[in-house]
Amino acid sequence: MINRNNISPAFESGLVITIAVILGLISIYLPIIGAMVDFFWAVPFTVLSIRSGIKKAALTLCATIILLSFLVGSILTIRLALSFGLAGLALGFAIQNHFGAVKTFMLTLMVSFAAQVLATMILLFAMNVNILDNQIQMVRESFAETFALYESLGVSEMEIEQAKSQIEPAISAMSLLMPTFLLLMALINTAACFYTVKWLLPKIGLQISDFPRFSEWRFPIAFFYLMILSLLGLYWGSTRDLTLLYTVSINANIMALFVGFIQGLAVLSSVADHYEISKLVRRLLFVVLILNFMMFQIVSFVGLFDMYFDYRRYFR
């Protein structure tokens, strides 16, 4: 166990700044590795916030921003600090104030999502950079290379054109999913930071509460109604050419399906507990359900209806 009294506050802040700057440089100059490093960039600030308070961690984050700005430019630094740093501060604040695991995770997720939105707006208006458009362009280039390979292997031009006509609408629809994309980024960031900090805390003599058993997970019934409203919005938006309504509805629909899928897996986990099915078998089953789109939808609706009917009461 590390004795905090043996570490001076100045050294502690300096160490966090050094680690954050190194991770920031890796994130910016090594694109593939950096994309993974991004999600762990907030961890030093979380640990500092827990040990020394949110104010000191916030000041250290500001010092890191100033130093990184001189090295790589202010816009990229602000994007990194907003997208990931603020979530680290929120996580540290929640843990220091002894929030439960669920409340801690949700607070961090909300702050992370808001920070992702703010960072995206800054990139869009200050640098005219649209993150999702860049990702869509990469997907198009990837498929173009794949189709070129198929053509070189002797696949007929008619079959290639047919495949393109099926894939292009799906790629174009991605432009409507910016909120979902940002929420997914925030979710990955929150999960990476949360579980990394959970692993680190015992090494410095601290602890964080655990989530409830997965079979007991429940989400608010509001997601059940969100699914119904999103389906109505998709119908009205598509039949009456209401682009904004359609965009909001498709993002809400994906969010409701995703939450429903998690709760559906929780229902299946409860059934597996009741019949004492081994963890290996249920994990293999979960992988199959995730990879099969039709089964994914079925499990999602099971979870959404469980919010209303509570199927698990039959196994209690």
What does this structure look like?
- The protein is an all-alpha fold.
- 78% of the residues lie in helices and 0% in strands.
- It contains 13 helices and no strands.
- The chain has helices spanning 9-29, 31-37, 43-52, 54-72, 74-96, 101-126, 131-152, 157-173, 178-200, 222-239, 243-274, 279-291, 293-309.
- Helix 3 (43-52) packs antiparallel against helix 4 (54-72).
- The radius of gyration is 23 Å and the shape is globular.
- The two termini are 41 Å apart.
- The model has no long low-confidence stretch (mean pLDDT 83).
* Tally of individual helices: 13
Coarse structural class: mainly alpha
> Percent helix among the residues?
over 70%
What is the terminal-to-terminal distance? 41 Å
Strand content: under 5%
Order of helices and strands: HHHHHHHHHHHHH
List its traits.
about 325 residues, 13 helices, mainly alpha
Tell me briefly what this model is.
This protein has 316 residues and is mainly α. 78% of the residues lie in helices and 0% in strands.
Topology of this protein?
Layout: H1 9-29, H2 31-37, H3 43-52, H4 54-72, H5 74-96, H6 101-126, H7 131-152, H8 157-173, H9 178-200, H10 222-239, H11 243-274, H12 279-291, H13 293-309
